[in-house]
Amino acid sequence: MGKSFAEEMVNRKDWWLAIHFSTFQARKDLAENRELLEVKSFVVEAFCPRYTSMYHRVGKEARKGVTSEAQKAKRAKKRIRNPRQLRNIRRLRRESGQQSQD
């Protein structure tokens, strides 16, 4: 009962990682519970660095199409650098009744 986590992992490492951190399991976690995938990614990175790339690859695929509204707005502002374009956008927003967010 007094065994440390590291001692227990030595005995289980062969099968435990294969069961819990397979590509299949990562995709299943992604579909069912994204938070679990993030926790498992952290655990894999901390304790089993050689498995990290597999879980990061699945996580990266999951994040490909997901961008927050704040990121989208930031990108849009970066694209508009010409002051004339900004004035035109503000004018169009005023005319359509929207408030300026700049």
Automatic annotation (TrEMBL):
<dbReference type="InterPro" id="IPR039495">
    <property type="entry name" value="TAF1A"/>
</dbReference>
<feature type="compositionally biased region" description="Basic residues">
    <location>
        <begin position="73"/>
        <end position="93"/>
    </location>
</feature>
<dbReference type="GO" id="GO:0000120">
    <property type="term" value="C:RNA polymerase I transcription regulator complex"/>
</dbReference>
<protein>
    <submittedName>
        <fullName>Uncharacterized protein</fullName>
    </submittedName>
</protein>
<dbReference type="Pfam" id="PF14929">
    <property type="entry name" value="TAF1_subA"/>
</dbReference>
<feature type="region of interest" description="Disordered">
    <location>
        <begin position="61"/>
        <end position="102"/>
    </location>
</feature>
<dbReference type="GO" id="GO:0006360">
    <property type="term" value="P:transcription by RNA polymerase I"/>
</dbReference>
